[in-house]
């Protein structure tokens, strides 16, 4: 990820990496840089923003590697719009979610369902966001992910969901429309090309994730 950001030029296409990690805790820049295992799970220091969070099976993770100057967005706007893609994704499952002042991420019923931690380097973003889909919540008992003492929750506790791949498809379509990007997929990465308007040829809603038509 860092190599991609360091090596990219003004003409490099943006990429979005969609992954599902093995269990790991990551420390953001606001967390103590202690890599001692927690509850038998490895800990890795990261240069993203935020505190300590957990990643693992059943959790959807996206790394939008975007040229923010080309998109014409600042850091605050980028954070808000990425949070909105999460809120809109959850809305497709009829789950009402929202933000909390001073606490990046997305929350449902006062519990954290999605995390967001970014860094901007040379005008380009790295790191990204995660949504708890059907993962084990036990690791969250070892950390205070948002620094507010709030519980963690997951999408499967609030709605019927078909798994991480399904959520990834819904999020990717909403992300492409939010940022006006056309999406080309490959085994290595998802390539996001700047395009006029808010359209995309990729439409998971046709597969019946939600019965209602998308409204934009």
UniProtKB/TrEMBL annotation:
GO molecular function: lipoyl(octanoyl) transferase activity
Acyltransferase keyword on record: yes
EC number annotated for this UniProt entry: 2.3.1.181
Record flagged with keyword Lyase: no
Any single GO BP term: protein lipoylation
Pfam families from the UniProt entry: LplA-B_cat
Coiled coil: none
Alphabetical keyword list: Acyltransferase, Transferase
Gene3D superfamilies for the chain: Bira Bifunctional Protein, Domain 2
Pathway: Protein modification; protein lipoylation via endogenous pathway; protein N(6)-(lipoyl)lysine from octanoyl-[acyl-carrier-protein]: step 1/2
Family: Belongs to the LipB family.
PANTHER family linked to this entry: LIPOYLTRANSFERASE 2, MITOCHONDRIAL-RELATED (PTHR10993:SF7), OCTANOYLTRANSFERASE (PTHR10993)
Protein name (database record): lipoyl(octanoyl) transferase
Organism: Cyprideis torosa
